């Protein structure tokens, strides 16, 4: 028993691992392990029985957490958009735009995957949609099977890191940081990762063109009556939008000065980007709308199609993320606006129905309940673990690693990478992050940077052969047997599981390279954050002390003014008062010292704080 009492925290952690290996659901494993060791700890005297009284307060705190409301809101937004046919329209349109280029279909999948990630935030929805729509087309026109599978699975996992990612919401909650800051920090790394995927496809198009062929002319459907492609007018619209966006970004301080009626010299970069892109997108939509309304005939079929298909989701992205980045709305409010915007978009497209709404609400409820049960279980476990000083055990274990901050970051990412073979990102966020976060904070690591770093690493949990969830999602929709292609009538071979695994490996390596890049260049995350305001508590204490000394009742106000005669009288009375005073009881010296000088006590307390 002495061994168990002296090493209670390690035994408790080992018990959790045993529960998980036995195959119990994670939420119930966490809760059962916490309660089991909690009762044992009370019996052994490791911690007091009052720990049981802490549990209801912790659970009520979970229910009252407004930040977690963003999870069902963003989930509902993504499900409504995905089931209203937006993914099909995007893949069809963007595929036609990039089709004539080698690797164009793969580039279209990456671009649409990023766009779906910024609107849906749900990996399963993105992978299944693109697997059902794009995979048959890529196989039809001769794309390499592993490359096709890898591109689709990896593009779907972008929902992990591109805001409004659900894992970033959970990460911010567990690390005690702002969701808005987490979104800002992840913005640039997410699109750098997209750039890695694009470079991989471009390299294949250059060095292995047979693996990623271009679409044949007969497959390009959006052509003009005279047979032209319609690209010139599309490029003109894009150029006008880019010029408008660039001008707005350049003259943003002047626009703010005009809007607010007072001089504004500096505008944050994220605000410039969001407002400028929103302005450019709106101008493109206005040109297409006027062209169709007035029947001017200035735009080609392709240009009109691209504008009317791409603009609504882009505007929704700017509405949600823009208001969060600009500080106009909280992530919860942004998620609510996004859900309402998705419902409006589905209604305007004529695809809104009661069955669609019920499906979306049912799926959202299931996911939100799943998250809530895991959070409750992890709260029970962490409460008992901390009562047993488990956080100190973990801290001492990890702070003594060689290499300081870099050594800790490498170790933490290796742990997350290997655990991701068996656990998904929700489970990792609730089990591992609460243990690693306090240690990172003690080592002086910026927790936003640390959270984004772990989020990129957790993205590999969807791509690990053989347990990656994205690979399972793709396997569920990829053809398992030979089939006859509807468009060409040819017999097509199936996509094997090993081909899916083989295609995932290059993208897992790219994700790990991205982890290394973020460790080497933390400014990619922290550079987009607002400067932290540092408060000098000593100066605050001194200012409060001066304020108290200058007020009445503390010896320097008008009421405290005395005459020389009164001073002499008080001096004469002082020895008598001192002699008649009762002696100070033993052990009360500290209290007497503090009560004699309340300003000093307050200043000391502020310094300790």
From TrEMBL:
Pfam families: DctM (PF06808). The keyword Cell membrane applies. It comes from the Bacteria. This is Tripartite ATP-independent transporter DctM subunit. The chain crosses the membrane at residues 7-28, 34-55, 67-85, 105-135, 147-170, 190-210, 231-253, 273-294, 306-328, 334-350, 370-388, 408-436, 504-525. Residues 548-609 are annotated as: Disordered. One of its GO terms (cellular component) is plasma membrane. The keyword Cytoplasm does not apply. Its main location: membrane. Residues 14-523 form the TRAP C4-dicarboxylate transport system permease DctM subunit domain. InterPro entries: DctM, TRAP_DctM. One of its GO terms (molecular function) is transmembrane transporter activity. Residues 557-582 have a biased composition (Low complexity). It is found in: Cell inner membrane. Part of the tripartite ATP-independent periplasmic (TRAP) transport system. Keywords: Cell inner membrane, Cell membrane, Membrane, Transmembrane, Transmembrane helix, Transport. It comes from Extensimonas vulgaris. It is a multi-pass membrane protein.
């Amino acid at each position: 028993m002495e061994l168990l009492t002296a090493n209670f925290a390690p035994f408790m952690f080992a018990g959790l691992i045993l529960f998980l290996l036995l195959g119990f659901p994670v939420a119930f494993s966490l809760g059962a392990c916490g309660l089991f060791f909690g009762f044992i700890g009370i019996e052994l005297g490791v911690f007091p029985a009052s720990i049981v009284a802490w549990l209801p307060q912790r659970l009520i705190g979970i229910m009252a957490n407004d930040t977690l409301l963003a999870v069902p809101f963003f989930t509902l937004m993504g499900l409504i958009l995905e089931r209203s046919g937006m993914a099909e329209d995007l893949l069809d349109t963007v595929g036609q735009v990039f089709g004539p280029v080698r690797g164009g279909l793969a580039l279209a999948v990456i671009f649409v995957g990023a766009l779906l990630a910024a609107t849906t935030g749900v990996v399963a929805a993105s992978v299944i949609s693109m697997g059902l729509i794009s995979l048959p087309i890529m196989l039809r026109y001769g794309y390499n099977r592993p490359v096709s599978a890898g591109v689709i699975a990896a593009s779907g996992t972008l929902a992990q890191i591109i805001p409004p990612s659900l894992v970033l919401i959970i990460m911010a909650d567990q690390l005690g940081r702002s969701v808005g800051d987490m979104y800002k920090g992840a913005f640039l790394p997410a699109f750098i990762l997209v750039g890695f995927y694009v470079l991989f496809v471009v390299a294949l198009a250059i060095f292995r063109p047979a693996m990623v062929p271009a679409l044949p002319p007969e497959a390009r459907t959006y052509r003009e009556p005279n047979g032209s492609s319609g690209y010139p007018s599309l490029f003109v619209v894009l150029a006008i939008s880019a010029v408008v966006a660039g001008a707005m970004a350049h003259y943003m301080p002047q626009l703010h000065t005009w809007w607010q009626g007072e001089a504004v010299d500096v505008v944050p970069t994220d605000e410039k980007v969001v407002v400028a892109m929103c302005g450019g997108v709106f101008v493109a939509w206005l040109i297409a709308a006027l062209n169709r309304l007035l029947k001017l005939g200035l735009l080609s079929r392709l240009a009109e199609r691209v504008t009317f298909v791409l603009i609504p989701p882009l505007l929704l992205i700017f509405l949600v993320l823009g208001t969060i980045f600009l500080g106009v709305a909280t992530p919860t409010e942004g998620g609510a606006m996004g859900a309402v915007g998705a419902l409006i978009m589905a209604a305007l497209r004529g695809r809104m129905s009661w069955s669609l709404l019920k499906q979306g609400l049912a799926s959202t409820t299931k996911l939100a309940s799943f998250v809530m049960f895991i959070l409750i279980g992890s709260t029970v476990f962490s409460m008992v673990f901390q009562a047993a000083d488990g956080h100190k055990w973990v801290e001492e274990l990890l702070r003594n690693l060689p290499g300081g901050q870099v050594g800790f970051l490498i170790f933490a990412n290796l742990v997350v990478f290997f655990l991701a073979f068996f656990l998904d990102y929700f489970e990792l966020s609730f089990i591992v992050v609460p243990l690693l976060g306090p240690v990172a904070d003690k080592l002086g690591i910026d927790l936003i940077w640390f959270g984004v770093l772990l989020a990129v690493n957790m993205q590999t949990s969807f791509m690990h052969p053989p347990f990656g969830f994205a690979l399972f999602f793709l396997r569920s929709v990829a053809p398992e047997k030979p089939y006859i292609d509807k468009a060409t009538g040819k017999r097509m071979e199936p996509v094997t599981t090993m081909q899916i695994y083989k295609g995932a490996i290059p993208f897992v390596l790219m994700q790990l390279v991205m982890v290394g890049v973020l460790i080497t260049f933390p400014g990619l995350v922290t550079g987009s954050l607002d400067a932290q305001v540092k408060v000098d508590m000593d100066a605050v204490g001194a200012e409060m002390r001066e304020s108290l000394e200058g007020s009445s009742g503390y010896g320097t106000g008008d009421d405290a003014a005395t005459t020389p005669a009164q001073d002499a009288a008080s001096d004469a009375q002082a020895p008598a008062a001192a002699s008649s005073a009762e002696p100070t009881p033993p052990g009360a010296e500290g209290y007497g010292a503090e009560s004699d000088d309340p300003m000093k006590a307050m200043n000391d307390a502020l310094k300790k704080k």
